[in-house]
């Protein structure tokens, strides 16, 4: 499945734009409940104004809130970003840590955000589980769990360690392009012959038949 998804989505990488670990951390924190496109639009100028952890603490909270407003839930995000910056300065010499157990201590940083930050820095310690990864993992029969931590545990048992970083990107892009929440396009899916949830596609004037497998590259 991984090989097929790699062939189908060779461009499956993180969509957020960042130049260093601090920008990565802030981008991922801002991406909650909004689109990567919106975050990139905001951070394009945000990162010109805020370059170091100190910069986020040097402005009044209301100013940071205003700057983050387009990303939604901006009051909470502003509080979390400031809290994270303060902890970076107090406990990590102003550097973004790479260990999951350190990252999840930062205000507003949950396991998903921590996994993204660690993986993008080449220090993969787990598998990112977002809404796409959860949905596709369930549909593909990798897990029966609902809780992201339990889903991640199931995936870590199934996915080869070397693929932990790219695996979620493959599912995310496949989820966006083919296996959407509302109307999965099983008829165009390279995993259809392997997927226990492949939809039965009705044929005109005939009984419904299972989705045929496609020739593989
Ligand atoms: S066959 Fe259908 S349900 Fe299964 S992964 Fe592909 S699009 Fe999703």
How do you describe this structure in short?
This protein is an all-alpha fold. It is built from eleven helices and no strands. It is elongated and about 55 Å long.
Question: What tags apply to this protein structure?
Answer:
about 220 residues, mainly alpha, about 0% strand, disordered C terminus, binds iron/sulfur cluster
Give the helices and strands, then pairings.
Layout: H1 2-8, H2 21-30, H3 36-49, H4 53-58, H5 61-68, H6 74-91, H7 100-103, H8 111-120, H9 131-139, H10 148-158, H11 166-177
Helix pairs in contact: 1-11, 2-8, 5-6, 9-11
The structure holds iron/sulfur cluster.
Iron/sulfur cluster (SF4) binds next to α9.
Written account of the structure:
There is one protein chain. The chain has eleven helices and no strands. It has helices at 2-8, 21-30, 36-49, 53-58, 61-68, 74-91, 100-103, 111-120, 131-139, 148-158, 166-177. Iron/sulfur cluster binds at residues 136, 139-140, 178-179, 184-186, 189, 191-192, 195, 197-199.
């Amino acid at each position: 499945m991984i090989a097929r998804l790699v062939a189908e989505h060779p461009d499956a990488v993180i969509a957020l734009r960042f130049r260093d670990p601090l920008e990565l951390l802030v981008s991922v924190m801002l991406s909650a409940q909004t689109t990567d496109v919106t975050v990139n639009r905001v951070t394009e100028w945000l990162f010109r104004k805020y370059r170091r952890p100190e910069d986020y603490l040097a402005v009044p909270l209301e100013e940071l809130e205003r700057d983050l407003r387009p990303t939604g839930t901006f009051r909470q995000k502003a509080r979390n970003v400031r809290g994270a910056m303060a902890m970076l300065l107090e406990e990590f010499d102003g550097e973004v840590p790479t260990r999951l157990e350190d990252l999840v201590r930062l205000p507003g940083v949950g396991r998903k955000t921590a996994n993204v930050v660690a993986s993008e820095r080449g220090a993969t310690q787990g598998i990112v589980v977002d809404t796409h990864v959860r949905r596709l993992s369930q549909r593909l029969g990798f897990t029966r769990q609902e809780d992201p931590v339990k889903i991640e545990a199931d995936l870590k048992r199934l996915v080869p360690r070397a693929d932990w970083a790219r695996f979620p990107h493959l599912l995310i892009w496949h989820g966006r392009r083919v296996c959407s929440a509302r109307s999965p396009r099983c008829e165009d899916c390279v995993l259809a012959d392997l997927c226990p949830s492949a939809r039965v596609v009705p044929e005109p004037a005939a009984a419904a038949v299972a989705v045929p497998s496609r020739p593989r590259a």
